[in-house]
């Protein structure tokens, strides 16, 4: 029996193109002692994958080597096992790669419940949820009645940040790239304001929404909204720099905000990446699962079909055409 996988064969200079990847066919291996074979059912496409494709050795995680299966996280079922911690039939989540099947010693896998839809797990309890949870509660440390601005607010991380902040009693201003996304944020998720950063009067709309200034800024994008938001920060405001997707495909990053403003307003700005907080995932996952079950968090998943849809599909994250968590169903 054989299965398909996608390897990285070239590094992107700017945008991600199909010629960076090769679809290969592999024979199902014979398992060694302690190994398991996973039949992958769902893969998560994440903006971080763009960074993993680049040659940068100074990042928080080493790059994918050329010729290796492209790194990606996913969900699957153990179909053969020589590891008693992971019996056949278990459902698992972990870094599996863009592949239909994956062999593992279990170190990259966690057993997950079978009764929660895969889309809910990947959208809420997995990376987007723990990122939103950590960035909001541990980095920004929100207080009731504060005003928070979230960029890529209709995305998987941003939509959860905004909902959790709203549930705590903050005034939530979401920034997104289409009117459809803004309507979803206001009408379905209950954001106080949702502003399309592509509107000509974006800054005017932001000023009239943030009448008391901005206390907290959850930054997912960089790009044209960043300076306008920064300029409206209140004294002692806090900024969590989670992602800068507007910069990932550029050769030279855009200049950041003015450092004098950081002094004058005594701002706290903190970047963070979730692999540093791996030990907190069970705690955050439990809290997110409870919020999901109580109906306190809504999500939407954008599902593509088939392994090969992953290579062009990932670009939906950069064009903004994804509506919610981008997932490949195998
Ligand atoms: N620090 C960490 O550990 C960590 C973990 C997970 C994710 N992240 C970061 O969090 C951010 C959101 O990730 P996600 O998985 O939730 O993705 P997402 O928000 O679901 O999807 C990406 C969105 O980014 C927006 N975007 C793309 N290009 C843009 C541009 N030039 N200017 C403004 N917006 C742009 C698009 O929405 P619009 O239609 O609204 O433009 C697109 O839908 C990313 O920057 C990611 O790298 C960081």
TrEMBL record:
UniProt superkingdom: Bacteria
Keyword Oxidoreductase annotated: yes
InterPro entries the record matches: ADH-like_C, ADH_N_2, ER, GroES-like_sf, MDR_fam, NAD(P)-bd_dom_sf
GO molecular function terms noted in the UniProt entry: oxidoreductase activity, acting on the CH-CH group of donors, NAD or NADP as acceptor
Keywords: Oxidoreductase
Domain called Enoyl reductase (ER): residue spans: 17-328
SMART domains with a match to the protein in the record: PKS_ER
Gene3D superfamilies: Medium-chain alcohol dehydrogenases, catalytic domain (3.90.180.10), NAD(P)-binding Rossmann-like Domain (3.40.50.720)
Keyword Transport: no
Protein name in the entry: Enoyl reductase (ER) domain-containing protein
